[in-house]
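Lecture 7 notes: from sequence to structure.
We start with the chain below.
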Amino acid sequence: MQTLHQYLLILHIISGVLALCVFWGPMLAKKGSPWHVRSGRWYSQLMYLICSAGILMCTLVLSAPLTVKAADLSPGQDPVKFAAAVRQMSGFLLLLCLLALMNLRQGLLALQAGPARLSLRHWTHQGLVVLTLLCALWTLWQALPRQFVLGQIFGAIALFSSVGCLRYIHRASVERSDLLKEHIGNMLASAIAVFTAFFAFGGRKVLDLGPELQLLSWILPSILGIGATLWYNRRYAKGRAGLKTAAVR
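Predicted structure tokens for the same chain:
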């Protein structure tokens, strides 16, 4: 199990580094252009690898924490408390993987499904959204009494995100302008997971952030991502308003 976990970790890290680079292709390319579509496909494939490897790693740790994480157990450390702490962190990381995967699929299917949203309403996607919602509730239930701040923050984010996905799926009707907003918002949300992992794990060590800045390394990508989403949506709304004004003239 340790060997499998290590191979999955390597795949997870390599895919994450590549996704950090490829992300800027669809982000900066003209929307709907061949390069936007092609680079977006590469980014989506890398995200599927990242999420799949992450979910498998977390599942292994949750099922056998003392076996998979045996190297991290210090001499004299209580194995019961160690296993509980490892399971709490792995459950939290599992939530992040599910959240990223849910946002990725929601963003991709929003454009593919169109206003009918039939593929979004398929049981496989709705099952993922409901699973993310349940995992968010479980994370909050565990985090609140234990004062696990990261679990509280991202549990709330995952809860609101999954509810937002369900509301979009079951809305009576959607405009074509809503499709692009849903696509942009959820694709950016999936990218937040990659940048969060970079800042919280790799970037924190590279930049040598002190303990007081460790929490910031977790939440800063989410803050920037939400700001980018609002900016993109406002820019798109202004563009449509300009087109309508030109058409009237």
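Points to note: Residues 196 and 219 are 7 Å apart (CA to CA). The chain has a mean pLDDT of 84.
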